Each structure stands twice: as C-alpha cells, then as structure tokens.
Amino acid sequence: MAIITYRDALNQALREEMERDDRVFLMGEEVAVYQGAYKVSKGLLQEFGEMRVVDTPIAELGFAGVGVGAAMVGLRPIIEFMTWNFAVLAFDQILNSASKMLYMSGGQYNMPIVFRGPSGAALQLAAQHSQAFESWLMHIPGIKVVTPATPYDAKGLLKSSIRDDNPVCFLEGEMLYNTKGEVPEEEYVIPLGKAELKREGDHCSIITNGKMALVAMNVADTLAKEGIRCDVVDLRTVRPMDVEAITTSVRKTNRAVVLEEGWKMAGIGAQIVDFIQRDCFDHLDAPVVRVHQADVPMPYAKNLERAAKPDAAKTIAAVKKVMYLDGGEK
Amino acid sequence: MAIITYRDALNQALREEMERDDRVFLMGEEVAVYQGAYKVSKGLLQEFGEMRVVDTPIAELGFAGVGVGAAMVGLRPIIEFMTWNFAVLAFDQILNSASKMLYMSGGQYNMPIVFRGPSGAALQLAAQHSQAFESWLMHIPGIKVVTPATPYDAKGLLKSSIRDDNPVCFLEGEMLYNTKGEVPEEEYVIPLGKAELKREGDHCSIITNGKMALVAMNVADTLAKEGIRCDVVDLRTVRPMDVEAITTSVRKTNRAVVLEEGWKMAGIGAQIVDFIQRDCFDHLDAPVVRVHQADVPMPYAKNLERAAKPDAAKTIAAVKKVMYLDGGEK
Amino acid sequence: MAKKKSVTRARATGKSAKADAAAVDAVRGDVELRLELLHSMLLQRRFEEKSAEAYALGKIGGFCHLYIGQEAVSTGTISLLRPDDYVITTYRDHGHALARGMSPRGIMAELFGRADGVAGGKGGSMHLFDRNLNFLGGHGIVGAHVPIATGVGFAIKYRGGDQVCLCFMGESVVNTGAFHEALNMASLWHLPVIYVIENNRYGMGTALERASSIHDIYERAASYDMARAMVDGQDVFAVREAFSEALTRARTEQLPTLLEIRTYRFMGHSMSDAVSGTYRTKAELDEHVKRDPIVLLRAMMQEAGEIDDAAMAKMDEEIKAVVQDSWDFADQSPEPPLEALYEDVLVDTTSDAREEATV
Amino acid sequence: MAKKKSVTRARATGKSAKADAAAVDAVRGDVELRLELLHSMLLQRRFEEKSAEAYALGKIGGFCHLYIGQEAVSTGTISLLRPDDYVITTYRDHGHALARGMSPRGIMAELFGRADGVAGGKGGSMHLFDRNLNFLGGHGIVGAHVPIATGVGFAIKYRGGDQVCLCFMGESVVNTGAFHEALNMASLWHLPVIYVIENNRYGMGTALERASSIHDIYERAASYDMARAMVDGQDVFAVREAFSEALTRARTEQLPTLLEIRTYRFMGHSMSDAVSGTYRTKAELDEHVKRDPIVLLRAMMQEAGEIDDAAMAKMDEEIKAVVQDSWDFADQSPEPPLEALYEDVLVDTTSDAREEATV
Ligand SMILES: Cc1ncc(C[n+]2csc(CCOP(=O)(O)OP(=O)(O)O)c2C)c(N)n1
Ligand SMILES: Cc1ncc(C[n+]2csc(CCOP(=O)(O)OP(=O)(O)O)c2C)c(N)n1
Ligand SMILES: [Mg+2]
Ligand SMILES: [Mg+2]
Questions:
Q1: What is the CATH number of the domain that holds D333?
Q2: Complex ipTM, two decimals?
Q3: What is the pLDDT of residue C28?
Q4: How near does any CA of chain C get to the CA of D152, in Å?
Q5: How far does B8 lie from chain C, in Å, by closest CA?
Q6: Residue range of the domain that includes D107
Q7: Looking at the 3D structure of chain C, how many domains does it have?
C-alpha cells in the first residue's frame, strides 16, 4: 500500500470517478486554473478540460443551484465549496431543493450530487472561518452526510459518494489535507453508513467522527499506556448513522464519551447520546460525557482558540470522568 | 384580563415597543401596505409611517443584512421573515454576522435585533413550507431563540426580545395565530431564558416548546382523566435553555418524554435528552422517549401529513411507554 | 468552460433581432394552430376555475396560486418547444403544466393529494413534476429555481445537445440574489436558457415599483450582456414571436435571453388573498380584465371567421368535460398508502445500477 | 419609505457629474494635504511590510491579506470623510483601518492575537473594528457586508443625519447575490451609501473576465438606476475627485453611488498565495508595479518641488519607527486572559440599561 496524503487520496477519488463516468464533473471556486484553493483538484483541469472542471464566480447559492439543475437531468455534479463556512449561503439549495426533490416529485427526480469541501476549524481563522457543519446537515432527511478522518476513508467514501444516486454532503477536515496514511493501489470503495471501530477496548467507548477520530485514536493510545482500554467508534458517515456500531460498543464497555468538533447545543453529540440512552439504558454505568467546542464563536488568539477546541486532554479527562477515575473532568 | 389571539398579542407587543422606543422599526416582506402576510403588523404602517414599517423586495439575505447594519449603529430592527422557511436564505447573516459581531469586535458592537416570523408546519403546505427551525438556530452561540406557545407568552416574550440588546430569533407558530388566550391589559414582560411549568404532575415530565406545548397540555389533561399526572415543561426560550426547570421536573417524576415539532437527528429533543441523562442519570426510571416529525420531508397529502406530524396520540403513547403501561409505543 | 468570444453582435436586444419572425408570421395563417392555442388557454382557465371550486370545498388544501389571466404566456411559449426541451417554474404552475401536456387527471389528483397524482400526492399544487414531459417542477422558494434552470442549461451544453431550458418566474424574482447569480453564469458560460419573467405587476401585495429600483426590468439583462425584450403578455402571438427569437438564439447559438412578458393576474395571489382592495383597486383590475388573453384571441379568430359561437361553445363543452373528468378521477383516487410516507426520501441505487439518463 | 420621485436627473453617471470637482481641484495646491496623503499611504505600506515579516516569524497566524499596491484607494476616499461617517470593509482591511486612523499599536496587537488588540485578540487580521472611529469592521464572507452597509445607510436616513457610509469591496463581490439585493434596496430607498469596488482584477486566482459576464463592472449600477463611475485607483487625486462627487451626492441628496476603482494587488491573495505564476504572469505584475501609487505621488511632489529625498527619508524613518513601535507594543502585550473566551458572546443589558446610541 502506498502512503499518501488525505489531499491526494481525495484527488485520486475525483480522478478515478471522472475517468469512470463522463457524467461526473467538478464545479466550484478556484477548482480549475488555480488547481483548488486547497489543491484537492490538482491536475484535473489539465486532464479533463474546462467543461468538466469548472471555475465559478463567487456565487455559492447560484452554483449550488446549477449543480441541482444538472443533477436533475442526468449529470453527476460534484460541487466544491471553498469551505463549508461559505456554503451557508447555499443551504437553501441543499435543504429546500436537493434534499426534497425526490420526495416532492413523488420519486421522479433523484439527485446524484455531491457537495464537498473543508469543514471545521483550522488554525486561527477566527469566527467566520472555523465552523463544523455536520450537526446542521445531519438534521436534514433526504441527504447523506460523510466526514472521513483518514486518507483511506477519504478516498473510499468519496468514491461511494460520487456513485451514490442521492445528494451527499461530504465534509473534509481542513486540517487533515496534509495528514498521511495507507491507501491501496487497487480500486476500493467504502459503503456509506458504516462506522469503523478504529481502536478496540473494553473500558470505555469514544464515539466520534471526522477530524476528531484522530484525536480519539491518540487518546486511546495514550490511555492504553495507563491500562485504560478504549473503543474508538468512528462513524465516518453521520447520516445515515450506524447506530448499531454505537450500541454494540457501549453495550460492551458500559461507558461512553462523545467527541465532536462543533458546538454543543443540538449537536451531533446530543443525537449520539440520545441513541445510547435509548438503546443502552440498562447498560450504562455512568452518564455519557460530551467533549465539544466551547459554546462561543471561535476566537482568533492562539491561546483562546486552543482553549475553545476539543482536544486530547479534554477527551482524556472525559474518559476518566465516565470511569470515575482521578483526573477526570469535574 | 382580555382574551385575545396570539396574532393580536404579537401586534400589541410590536405597537407598544415601537411607541416606547423610536429606534425600534419593523422591516420585511408585506409588513406595511399589505398589513403583514399573516396580519401580525396590522395597523402599524398607519400608526408609525413608512420609515418605521418598511416593505422590502424579496431579498431575505439582503434585508436581514440591512437589519444587521442598522443594529450596529444604534437602531433596533425587527426583521420579519414571511416564514422561517425563507429565512434559510438569510442564515449567513444570522450565523456569520449577527451572532458573531459582538465577539469578533471584542465586545464593541452588540446587536439589538429581532428576527421573527412563523415557523413550523401549518396545513398541507408541503415540503418547502413546513419546517421548524429551532434545532438549527439553537446550535448558534451569540443569539437567543424564543418559541412562544400562548398569546400571553407571545406578547411578554416579544417585548423582552425587542428590549434585549442581543440578536433574538423569535419563532412564531404558523398554526397559532388564531389561537386565543388571556393577556393582561397592563404592561408586562416575560424574561428570556425561563421555562414555565404549564401543567403539574408527578408521574412523567413532558418537555416541549412552541406549538407543541399546546399538544402537551392537551395530553396532560387527557391523561389526567386516566389518573396519569404529567408535568408539562414549556421551555419558551430554547436558547439559553432553562436546564434547571427540566432537571427539577425530571428529578421529581423520574420519567420524561420530549416533544418537538421538527426532525429528530440532532434536534432540540436530542439536546434535552443530553441534559437529562447528564444531570438526572440516577433519577431516570426509563429511557427518555422522543416524539418528533417523521424523518422525511413534509408530504402534501392530508393523511400523510397527519402521519408525519407529532401529535397528541403519539405523545400519549410515548408517555405510556416511559411508564411501562399498556398502550405505550412499542 | 468555453471562453467568451466577441458576442456583442449576437446580443442585440430582442427588439431588433428578428431571427424567426418570418417563420412565426407564417403561423398567423394557420387556423389549426390558432385553435390549438385557444384550446390550451381555455383548458388552463377552466381547469383553474374548477380548482377554485374544489378549494372552496376543502378538496384541495394548502396554498393554491391561480394563473388565470396569464394563459397567453404559458401557451405562447410552450407551444413552440420540442418534447425534449425542459420547463421549470414556480409554485404558480398549473398553467405551465397543462400547456406542456401534463394530464389534467394527474394534476387534479395531485391537488387533491391522492395516490394517482403526478407526484403521488406528495407535492401538491406548488410542486407539479413530470419526468416524461421534462417538466422539472414547480418550486416554492422565490428565486431558487432560477439557478436550477441555469444548471439544466449547463447540462445541455455539457452533452452537446441543442435543447433549451425555459424558466418561468414572477417579476419579484429579479430582486433576489439567486436571479443575479444565475443570469451572470448563464451569460458567462453561454447557456441555452430562456428566462421568462411573467410580470403581473405584483409580488403578493407589493407593486413592482415598490420593490425594484428600475421599472423596465428586462433591462437588468444588460448587467449580464444578455439579449432581452419586453413583450405584451396578453397577446399570444406577440409572446410567440418574441419567444421564437429567443428560441433560435438558444438553439443555434446557445445564448440565453431574458424576456419580460407583461401580464396581469385576475385572481388574488393565492386563495386566501382578496382579488382587489388592499393593494390594487377594483378599477385597475377591471381595466386589465378587458385584455383577457382568451377573449382577445377568440375575438380575433371570430373576426377572421375562424371560429363561431357554436364552435366555441363546443370547444368549451369538451374542455369542461375533460376538467370534470379530472375532478371525478381525482375524487375517486385513493389517499396515498401510509407506507408512502417513508418512501422517496432516498433511492437505494448507485450510478452502477441505473441506466444512462438522457439529457 | 419615502417614494422615489423622478431621480433621473440626479443620477447622471459620475463621469459627468462634477459636483465638488472645483473644491477638490483647489486641494491640488495644498502641500500640507499632499504630505498627509503620502504619509497615510506610506504608513499602510510599511505597516504591511512589517506584518509580512511578523507572519513569516509566526507572530501572526491565520489568514492575512495584504493591501500593498491599493493604498491610493483607501487614502483617497477616507481622507474626505468626516469622523461621524461610517466605514465598512472586507477581510483585506489593514489599509482602510490605518487610513481611518486606527492605532497601529492596536492593529498590530490584534494581528498578534494579544489582549491590547483593537478587538482584544478575538478578531484578528480579517476583523478589525473600532467603534470610536465608526469603523464597522472587516468581514470575512465575500459580499455579506454589502447589505450591512445598506443598513447603515438606512439608519442614517432614519435618523435624518447627513453622514454617509463608505463600503469597500473586491471586484468579485459584484457576482454575489448579496451585492444585487443590497444595491437594489439602497437605490430604491435613496440611501447615502458609497459602494467602492476595488477592482484589483483578481478574486484569488480568478480574473474578472472569467467570473463576470460584463467587464466594465460599474455598469452593473444601471440595473439599479444608480450613479456610477470608473476611476484610476493608482492616482490618489483621481480617487479623491470621483469620491468627492459621490460624497456630495450622498450628503446632499442621500443618493448612493457605485465606484469602480481600478487598482492592482502587488502581493499574493493572502500569505499562502504566490505573488505570480499560477494565474498571472511576472510580466503583468511588473507592469503594474510601475504604477505604484506611492511612487507616483512622490514623483509628482518631487517634480513640483514639494518634497525632496531628505524629507522623504525622514518621513519614512518616522513611519518605520511608528511601525516598529507597534510591533514592540504588540510583542509585549499579553495573551488575552482565558476568561475572555466566554466573554462577549452576549451582553446582559437591555434597551433600558443602555444610553441612546448615536448614529
Ligand atoms: C424566498 C421567498 N420569500 C418569500 C416567499 C413568499 N412568497 C411566495 S410568492 C411571493 C410573491 C412572488 O411574486 P412574483 O415573483 O411576482 O410572482 P407571482 O406570485 O406574481 O406569480 C412571496 C413573497 C417565498 N415563497 N420565497
Ligand atoms: C462567500 C465566500 N466565498 C468564498 C470565500 C473565499 N474567498 C475569500 S477572498 C476571495 C476572493 C475575493 O476576491 P475580491 O472580491 O476580488 O477581493 P480581493 O481579495 O481581490 O480584495 C474568496 C473566494 C469567502 N470568503 N466568502
Ligand atoms: Mg408577480
Ligand atoms: Mg479582487
């Protein structure tokens, strides 16, 4: 297996799927001539030409709608948002057009479209550029929501998302593009809707997704040295959610920490807690503890940003808390 | 006390606050000449003139931004969305401008602005016109979110929202405008962030907000006849959330049903469950059960719509389920 | 994307470009066609009168926006389309659907919320769709379908086809951001989309002049270097003439056009809105009703001896029977089964499992 | 809202309206003023050169967008404002903040993310705000601040004041829906807002011609019946002249203006973007750098004998000292206290508790 970056894994997925199916095209700001604001689309313009790799004006609402229209009549658009922060301008097209078209038309018009781009906080980008959007997106029936953590997952899940005949919101970690991992040379896909147990242990379950899965794996490795064994359930797809993977783990460990990148109120973590308390009520030895971003807009200053973000230390404290150990979060 | 409609209660609140403070103005589609799409602003144009009751083009993003600008320099805008379904187009201004301005400016620019309008499903308006938005809005730090159920609450809470120096999203029930209730002749306000116990009972807590509070009260009354006594906690403000009111009730009843208007995934109900399991873990005799809209876009057909919506029958079944009684939801 | 070459030449305003005018004029001699146009318009009229009746009886629920008074726009444009062209519109979609040939039964059953409705009762009045007719739906968020139309144009060009996408909208739409973003891209990329503004002078209760900073709204096209024209929307032939030019431009040059077609809505905005009184006077309404597009066409044909009272009455009877049949059909159609609630949320296919869709 | 009367007269394009030109021309004789303009521009330049240094050392983090090359726009416009006027801009905001008189110390400390920054370290480079200067911030979502500016204009009119709101934006903004909605309302309602497009020819790596269907983007104003002009942005006097006309129009007639000021950015889009190579050539860059606005002004003054090398060097030394002082100040400023994380999310006042804000 080759060791490649998350960015290159995505780039491979795009290239392979565009080669495989000439209805697939990529559209967004700076995807073509500039080779992508984060270089995810590097080389694609040269390979596929300007009809299939299309630079747009700054018009998120407009070009998301262009994607919806193209998908209605048989193309398979991949709409790149430079970051999901700007996609808010286009949420009407996701919520009111893409997610509802099949239903409103009584099953006539399905929507094979992928909306993708970086989500979540990078470093010191301040309030308007540092948001995680899975909690909002997963609220919507009629779409799927995918948040890969590793290069392997990124490639396999993006390929499945492009082949899916439904609208898929694909959230990449802005901080993950340079991370590396093993990716097979041969073709593979990863089914949407399946979690992966990324670490195994019987003391506590850490349920998480996206960039936070890396934090969780670190935490599990660190705690293993102290003799604390954690399951790390990486949901990968957050809608539909693999509830069975969550409950199987919690029924084994009897304790759970939910680690999420974004804000707390009505966040993805709350939903996971709901599934756990509903399905594992008699198995829980302690309340589920959530680790999330501080409930404030993201500050710019380095120290404040660090304090605002969920991290390994906070997660370790949470694990210790659900295990009623010293050093646990009070 | 006079018995008036929810619509008139809101109208009184607008009128009184506009009389009290000439920085307050109302802006939105059809608020002036047409007297409001739902007639909430009836008579205000005639009383306050066209500078303070302002019809806009169909430009939700634009006029929400106009409100933000006016609020930055000392006015107190009330921005009416004809319905919150259309407000999605303006969420960038709520999420990225209004909610973050104070923080990004290091405390310099607060935002005394109210965004208001009907939210939630009415009757057979189909997928694009039938959405409840509290779950999305309450996710955002830097704003308050209010969902009054009765004429009394509507008036008192709207007056507080207009006087508040922060951005407030005020979600009216599209189905509530014609409902009636007692409203004092004399001036009163209701503090934001305080729930109200609308029914008292010690068998089960029903936690809810907005239009669903009426359903919950009905359910409590019905069940009372069967000898089942329910607390009905109407949150009224969903951000900040009155967690103490929730936990006080659940510690008393040891059982809880959460009744919400919108979709389930990462919905307000999930957050309430999270608070309950965290703070009442040892008090719970059964998993919390949620009642919510079916996890699908809203269908048009009368029978399907009825099946999709949360209602009294479903809530009764949920109460019986958490009480392990016959007739409970399976 | 193909770069823009010099297009100034090709971009004369609709007023001066006379592309297909001759072809259209030839049509004026075609009685058959005129009868078809009259039939199309009258079907829309009678169907909606019946819908209003059904609404009053509670057989139709929710919002219901009638098109009465504007029929020359739907008929004048759609009558020139090919079956493989696309149509997309707003919530005020009954007229367009009928003009495109959607089954009155299927539409009425949809309005009644029944299983045999075109969308199985899930869409209702505002969301009529018919894949077989390339009818891409009624859409409820003002402005939102305009970029979707641009996307359809993009797909046509992507496949190298010569179809066009016809996009209807109300005049309020020109003030939305979606309109602006969509038209800029359509022009920048040379897409075969015809944007038809049905300027009926009001967006709900707001007169155009109170919402738009310019009043000749077709001139907004100048901001996009787009061909444009203003058209009398009560004269079905004027509509056809202007649309025919736009059609040629789209088919042969893949260039978009903005048409402002001036018309009037004879009913309230929706069933709950009074016909006149709040935002427009009875006198104004009466003035406009004089230019009823159906009356105008009929009068012209009668004058030319192409139709007489008896023939007219016969056509009307036939249409009324069709409409009554659609009512009966809808009335007998069952409610959708409850399982349908959870169907059509997602499909379970992937690109491997579906045959190639045709654009 | 006050209805629009006939405004065609008042709406001549900026090119022909010569309102305050005489007053502005008089200025050309004012050496004092010229020195001030030079000082303002040079301060921006040196400050940003220093910022680039600090960024390279990791003292500044996140995104950082330099304004180098565009200084004649900020200086030419803001130098004509009154203290009670308002300024609002994008993430590329250092130049505007300095031109408006924001303290270099406060700005540099903000860039360093320190407690003494103008926003207490919470905003950073993209979000400079100063309430005392009516500086309404740098904003990060492209287009979003344009309706906010319209709202400020609305508030001015609401209070009956004669202030104006000056709104800067990049040329990409003209393709956003927010721009369209905001300008339509400003014109419809007659609001005293001056929209200044700093057309530096690229939005990140996208040349204007690849994003906008028209290339003379000030002509977009025609869609809103708004006064407009195109201006040479490297000549601070040309900027002042055009802006002065717009200012008069806003102050005395409460009418908005759209100015397209053509300029060039000498650096990459942000610190991570190469100065040239991907989307523009070195040759193009070099060509534009020849028209450095500071060099042009200096040359003109030198020719007129208004400044010599020694005076220039002195001014530069003084400015460099100010900039170095801002660095030292920022460097010594503490990190914000951790409690600050939870502050400024909400205020706990109501309208009863705050004194009347002044518009
Ligand atoms: C974004 C949005 N805002 C508001 C509405 C509510 N609304 C529905 S129709 C309408 C008026 C539209 O007028 P126009 O575009 O002229 O079309 P017409 O109804 O006259 O055919 C409004 C305001 C909506 N559906 N979507
Ligand atoms: C809505 C939105 N989309 C995309 C971005 C990312 N972005 C930041 S600056 C920029 C280019 C803006 O160019 P222009 O308006 O010309 O201003 P300039 O940077 O040249 O000053 C882009 C695409 C954003 N911040 N907001
Ligand atoms: Mg209209
Ligand atoms: Mg630029």
A1: 3.40.50.970
A2: 0.96
A3: 56
A4: 19
A5: 19
A6: 2-357
A7: 1
